[in-house]
């Protein structure tokens, strides 16, 4: 009787051991296939698409994404715009800010996964916030950006033929920028993807700004004091 009980007990233990081994062999593979990617850092988190303006060309910002579980064929998106991956080491992804990118999220999705529109969540998806700054590549050559808030005005003095950089806050509704100056002015306005529109040698220009974004712009004027009203 003791021998029978011992045999039964040994069989149960042995069967349980085989079951554990089988389970442990399957878990890492299952986790690799079904768990989402992890994005631990994005460097830098501020950049620009390529800029090809009238007087200069600037390359797109190179971006390094670090993390794990990216899979063999991941997809990088800046919001809904797919970016080209130049190198995938398994824990690092190298890319550049694509044309048309705007502030929002940079995401990585595994093959077969998807990210919700303009979001860092979805199926097999991970990401972080990313900010487009058209002035980044200029190395602040026009000094620090001056903020002009909606519904407010500024009085700005220009010394010689000088260019100054400005940005608005995020506008709740579309508004007009009105510039009053004794001399003609040249204004360069960037859209949210850093495409520039130039208003050359204008007298007291009135320039429309869109709602929902913070607009960056430059003003070039002679030795005059100019008023900017938004």
TrEMBL record:
Keyword Signal assigned: yes
UniProt protein name: DNA-binding protein
Regions crossing the membrane: none
Presence of keyword Signal: yes
Organism the protein comes from: Leptospira brenneri
Entry keyword set: Signal
Signal peptide (from-to): 1-22
